[in-house]
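Quick question: what would this complex look like in 3D?
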Amino acid sequence: MSQRDLAIRAEGLVKHFKDVKAVDGVDLEVPAGTVYGVLGPNGAGKTTTVRMLATLLRPDAGNATVFGRDLLADAAAVRSQVSLTGQYASLDEDLTGIENLILLSRLYGYAKPAARERGAELLEAFGLSHAAGKQVKAFSGGMRRRLDIAASIIVTPKLLFLDEPTTGLDPRSRNQVWDVVRTIVAEGTTVLLTTQYLEEADQLAGRIAVIDTGRVIAEGTPGQLKSSVGAGSIRVRLHHADQRVHAQKVLAEALGAEVELDDDPVSVTARLSPGRDTAAQGAEALGELARAGVLVDDFSLGQPSLDEVFLALTNRVQA
Amino acid sequence: MTVTQTDTKSDADAPAPVEKEHLKRLLATGERPPAPSAFTSARVFAWRSMLKIKHVPEQLIDILIFPIMMLLMFTYLFGGAIAGGTVDYLQFLLPGIMVMSIVMTTMYTGMSVNIDINKGVSDRFRTLSIWRPAPMVGYLLADLFRYAAAGAIMFGTGMVMGYRPDGGAAGVLLGVALLLVFCFAFSWVWTWLGLITRSEKTVMSISMSIMFPLTFLSNIMVDPSTMPGWLQPVVKNTPISQLVDGVRGLFDGNVDSGSVLTTLIWSGGFIAVFGFLTIRAYNRR
């Protein structure tokens, strides 16, 4: 990929805090105009990586460019292109919603009347007009997140860092944040998003870097990551629990594959053979079950979930 | 199966849904106003501090009560013993005690910097392309307002107690101006301290151990000529004593231009050294 199409190119980023290697040699290539997911458990080094890329922390080693501008030598140019929504709301809790947006709009260079107008417009677009005069400390988690993102697009950034934007949000607020992220990317902004939720990375990100203990342990599209840990599987939920052992035998013969009994007492999971067409194997499995008189309530066919990928990858590293 | 709706906090004041079309229009403007000037950004940060005073007015209480307490305590407790009468002593004490209480309240700047810098909002400020010292200068500008308020209250209380400035209104205003210049400059010690220490408590204890000797070993309460000979040159030459000499002179109408000049030089020095250290610490965080 050519240099110009990259929003971020980082090589060997390292940051140590005392004896803790928070980030231990991270390489990233983030294509412009996409959502790039940085996925990892708590303490994996996601926030430290983002803070270095947003010019908030100086790396101990390694280098990075943001749209071709050097992070260290040209920090001011980097700052003029990025916005950061930190893990803990990057807002002034003592001030009201509108005061926060006016404050930041002024600092982005808007004159006072224009700042007030831009602030009011953003509140309206984010459905927060009713809370304009309320102190941020009285906002709910979802409202706070939205105001935080609103503040990040006062001036449309070329690159937006979202550090765990949905951690602690209820499902509805989370869906709204996802909608906002999709809209922002559709308008041309690159988003680097950190998350501990595989579903979130799967939903939003075009490419994902999996980070654990300060290193990138896997990188690729969600599909690539899933197929890297093996073929998909068939999960069958039976009508009668006492048919389970029978079903296991039928499936094992039909697919020539390993069939596991799940924790759920009425379901079994069969691994698919990697070489053969997924749909054909699925059809065969269903046909055999029907012929054998096994009653099936629910049937699912698919790639391994990112959860499985994640556990497989992190276990591999620990082993 | 029945689904029961539960009221959560976010449901109680549920925000309206995000308006995607509106959001798109806002994103598409592509407006990029020129970065604000150094002066504008500092002023915006000062405005932020003033808003905080508006939302949390309690923070003004100690800054206003403390000076009055100091004035009353020292005048009526020591006046008789030191000057043989409270009215005479007040005439000597007021400019000094004003310097003491206001310079002491500059310590709060370090604490608020320390609290503020560890909050998420500081991360956002530091990713903006603004004049780097702007947030600090903003605090200090808003603090000047508080010092001026404290000065006015002390002066008013002094007048009620019988203080009369021989330097007239001009002398008093110039004296207060000199005090504010010094406080602005001296506060850079605290902004630096606020940035390099781990907690606000550390800031507090370090500042206390600097401020107590510095203000008591001075000409604020007593004439240094009553002190042992070896101590006098030390006491007479601290920046605080020089400042007190300048302010007292201006209030009394017999200004010593030497001490005013020395105070201005000290102020320049504090800004140069601790301003530099502050910005370096701010950039390194």
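Answer marked as accepted. Residues 37-284 of chain B form one domain.
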